[in-house]
Amino acid sequence: MDAKKLILVGGGGHCKSVIDVAESAGFSILGILDIPENVGKTVLSYPIIGTDDNIPEYVDKALFIVTVGHIKDPNLRIKIHERIETAGGRLATLISGTSHVSKYSSIGEGSVVMHQAVVNADAKIGKGCIINTFANIEHDTVIEDFCHISTGAMINGNCFVGKGTFVGSQAVMVNGTSIAEGCVIAAGAMVRKNIVKKGIYSDNPAILKIKL
User: Smallest Cα–Cα separation from 138: which of 164, 165, 110, 175?
Assistant: First the structure.
């Protein structure tokens, strides 16, 4: 298997962004798996060659990356990751050629670090995460599995983001704060103290708006 060949799973808008990152990181894309009615179409000139049912056919030919976005919650992304792993497939880790990822940090399999993002020293990113364009993950921060840190978000040093959490565009976490598993932090919110209950939070300081 060529470790620089990819199968993308999911053909929507997030797929387009990941294609650009993959190309910048020197990967070649064999094709995309998506819903049945899209088979035969293309995404940025790359063919949709099958559906999730075809995952087993490619486990010996390429690495996989899940290109379904974080839609409301991470559950669909998690299910696809599990399906790939059950089939014996391996997940790639994609790091944009325009990002800065410290050699002292760690990035889990299936995660994507997008253009101009920063992952600083001793930060730990779990598996299946999206670190989106211009996001900043500072030193000693832990981002658990299947989180989406959106465009321009600022996660300061010694922070903790629980599994499956979405942090919106230009949201800020103050140094040393934590967010519970499965939360949604709205765009522009300011997390000034620990968030311990699952829910949707917004404003400055961030407060609970909807309990999940």
Answer: 175
Q: Please give the C-alpha separations between residue 97 and each of 32, 112, 153, in angstroms, as whole numbers.
A: 22, 12, 19
Structure tokens at 126: 């779990």
Where b means 16+ CB within 10 Å and e means fewer, 184-205 reads: bbbebbbbeeebeebbbbbeee
Q: Which of 209, 179, 200 is nearest to 191 (CA)?
A: 179
Structure tokens at 93: 């880790």
Q: Can you give the pLDDT at residue 71? A: 75
Lookup: tokens for 172: 């800020």
For the segment 48-66, what is each residue's pLDDT rounded down to a tens digit?
Answer: 999 999 999 999 999 999 9
Query: Using CB atoms within 10 A of its CB, is residue 179 exposed (0-12), middle (13-18) or buried (19+)?
Result: buried
The pTM of the full predicted model, rounded to 2 decimals, is 0.95
Interatomic CA distance for residues 27 and 145, integer angstroms: 23
Of 73, 49, 186, 192, nearest to 128 by C-alpha is 73
Give tens-digit pLDDT for 125-143: 999 999 999 999 999 999 9
Nearest-angstrom CA–CA distance, 210 and 94:
33
∠ Cα 84 85 89 (to 5°): 65
Q: What is the pairing mode between strands 46-50 and 42-43? A: antiparallel
**From start to end of 18-123, where are the E strands?**
28-33, 42-43, 46-50, 63-66, 94-95, 100-101, 106-107, 112-113, 118-119
